């Protein structure tokens, strides 16, 4: 079975540009999570969805960040405009319906904003 | 609020020796607890979890963890370390009441196993 698929794996962009990160969760999973990983702050939960509905976006840093989940098989995380401090690895993870279930992570999207 | 503490940024162990990676948690009510491993430039991989029942949980690659409710700890252990166990390890907690499944991670512990 395919795991969580993220694209792009690497993105280098200039400050002020729009960045869109994409995620395809595992088929049948109904929860999707976006995390950001940096050396300074570790793993931070940005936002998560249940059944395509955003449940908690309190971790989204500011209005420059937005996330959508238009259907059960696709989610995007958008940064507009991007800033150098947004440089990080962004992970998407998905989970099945059981509350005891573990998260399955994608390989991450490494973003560098120059 | 939920939180996880991994008090050691790095743990160094000789191959063949036992290893312990420490984790303490804070959560309202009962916890679900998880351990993940991350290899360089990879995503996090699930190792094991505690949901209920036996306090000693066995997981992948010979790892195990012991849930201690009175000490609010969930330390990761392995009887005999391998060089290939060298990686970044994360402890995570979810409150039982959190039906949304939100998982909060510790800062991670870098495990280095030397030959």
Which class best fits the helix and strand makeup of chain A? mainly beta
Q: Would you count the extended β strands of chain B for me?
A: 12
Q: State the major sheet of chain B.
A: 6 strands, mixed
Tell me the number of helical segments of chain A per DSSP (H or I, 4 or more residues long): 0
Shape, principal axes of CA atoms of chain B: globular
Q: Biggest interface: chains and residue counts?
A: A-B, 24 and 25 residues
Oligomer: heterodimer
Task: Classify the helix fraction of chain B into a percent range.
Answer: under 10%
Low-pLDDT residue spans of chain B: none
Mean pLDDT of chain B: 93
Instruction: Give the structural class of chain B.
Output: mainly beta
- Return Rg of chain A in Å: 13 Å
Strand and helix order of chain A: EEEEEEEEEEE
Biggest beta-sheet profile of chain A: 7 strands, mixed
Q: Give the beta-strand count of chain A.
A: 11
Strand residue content of chain B: over 45%
Could you spell the SSE succession of chain B in H and E letters?
EEEEEEEEEEEE
**DSSP helical segment count of chain B:** 0
Concise summary:
By secondary structure, chain A is mostly beta strands.
Keywords for this entry:
heterodimer; A: 114 residues; mainly beta; four-stranded antiparallel sheet; 11 strands; 54% strand; B: 115 residues; six-stranded mixed sheet; 12 strands; 52% strand
Can you walk me through this structure?
The complex is a heterodimer of chains A (114) and B (115). With 114 residues, chain A is mainly β. Helices cover 0% and strands 54% of the residues of chain A. Chain A is built from no helices and eleven strands. In chain A, strands 2, 4, 5, 6, 9, 10 and 11 form a seven-stranded mixed sheet that branches. The model of chain A has no long low-confidence stretch (mean pLDDT 94). By secondary structure, chain B is mostly beta strands. Helix content of chain B is 0%, strand content 52%. Chain B contains no helices and twelve strands. Classes of the chains: A mainly beta (114), B mainly beta (115). Chains A and B meet through β4, β5, β9 and β10 of A and β5, β6 and β11 of B.
